[in-house]
Amino acid sequence: MAIEKKVVTKAVEKIVEANTLLSGLGFESGGLGAAHAVHNGLTVIEEAHDLYHGEKVAFGVLVQLVLENASIEELNEVLYFCNEVGLPTTLADLNMANVSNEKLMEAAELSCAEGETIHYMPFKVTAEDVYAAILAADAIGENFKKQYILK
After folding, report:
1. CA 32 to chain centre
2. For labelling alongside 26, which of 63, 81, 118, 139 has CA 20 to 30 A away?
3. Can you state the angle between helices 53-67 and 127-144, rounded to 10 degrees?
4. What is the maximum alpha-carbon separation in the chain?
């Protein structure tokens, strides 16, 4: 309720601290290397410049799940959560519905740049893989909204 009123209370501070800690632990220990690399790749797209880091990482989680060939149950769990809390699950949600395929490929290439965290994945990931996963994650997110959210 404090957040809705745009005020900071002790409870809000504690939640922010816990989220920061869990984000770091998840990044280091939870295998979110591809999700953060996708965020970094999306920085090349001008339409994404006004988005928060976490919004791009949230979409990156979906891309990573596609790369991992996650089950539909796992994808739906993440999609449901993201939609419930207002995190983006489609390119349209990221203001990127009209971004060219060439620009998306550029983002995919940047995601796979030398030294990127995507290379911590337990399998080889190419820019072509990331590009395909971005498009697939977008389609999965759109389908989820049509089936579950917009009824």
Report:
1. 10
2. 139
3. 100
4. 46
